[in-house]
Amino acid sequence: MSPCSAFCFSTRSSPASPSTRRLKNTRPPASSELVESTGLARSTASRLLAALERTELLERTADGYVGGQLFALYAALHDPWPQVARLAEPVLQAVSEACGETVHLGVARSDSVFYIAQVESTYLLRARDWNEVEVPVHCTSLGKVLCAYGALKLPPGQLEKLTEKTRTREELLRELPEVRDRGYSVSHDELEVGLSGLAAPVAGLEGSVIASLGVSGPTVRLQEKIHDLGPLLAREGARLASLLQAPTQARGVV
């Protein structure tokens, strides 16, 4: 019997049992709470929890135990975006620490870009909170990436011109191949005057691009960082793709 099976078998009980109520609790349980709710000996519970951590089915945090990255990967097959956002947390943090700007993860939703994760800038002058916000595809760096790699299409008809810098359809059709060649996209003052962004692709399980990893901030600050931020985002986007595609192999776990 596997560690997971043993632990699950030992916690089966009536619907009103403490272990059942524990499953409904959204707060991560501590090891002592799991021992109490399952009725296992402390040494047995500790051994099983350690085995589940090694196989990445559980992860120990400062608050308690949560589902591990392997668990998150399989859960993502049914409800992908919350789990993808969770797997992306260390990547977003790494980009944030490297540049100090607001970092985003965006995905395609209908014909728009939908932001599913964000790390705030360390600067006082920063971009807004984009979490769970939909924005047009043609005037953001994240949208350009999703269009360049086929995850989204440019909307039909004339594209809305939000600023003087917003690209026309003809300009974008020339720019998108450059995005693929370069490995990242850039937008300056195209969604809003004074706001700039860069983004890179993130591939999913089957190798196709499912998301874009980007940063945004004041144009006056970002335009000086393009040559550093673009390659950084391309590298971190590839690292996130490796976590989504094969998280255990990426860290050498068999």
What does this structure look like?
Helix 1 packs across helix 4 (42-54), helix 5 (69-75) crosses helix 6 (80-99) and helix 7 (141-148) packs across helix 8. With 254 residues, this protein is α+β, with helices and mostly antiparallel strands. The strands form two sheets. It has a six-stranded antiparallel beta sheet, with helices on both faces. A two-stranded antiparallel ribbon has the order 1-2. The longest helix has 20 residues, at 80-99. It folds into two domains: 3-67, Arc Repressor Mutant, subunit A; 74-248, GAF domain (Beta-Lactamase), CATH 3.30.450. Helices cover 44% and strands 19% of the residues. Strand 6 and strand 7 (195-203) form a beta hairpin.
List keywords for this structure.
alpha+beta; Arc Repressor Mutant, subunit A; two-stranded antiparallel ribbon; single chain; disordered C terminus; Beta-Lactamase; 254 residues; six-stranded antiparallel sheet; disordered N terminus; 11 helices
Topology:
Layout: H1 3-10, H2 18-24, H3 31-38, H4 42-54, E1 58-60, E2 65-67, H5 69-75, H6 80-99, E3 102-109, E4 112-119, E5 134-135, H7 141-148, H8 169-182, E6 185-188, E7 195-203, E8 209-218, H9 219-222, H10 226-245, H11 247-250
Antiparallel strand pairs: 1-2, 3-4, 3-8, 4-5, 6-7, 7-8
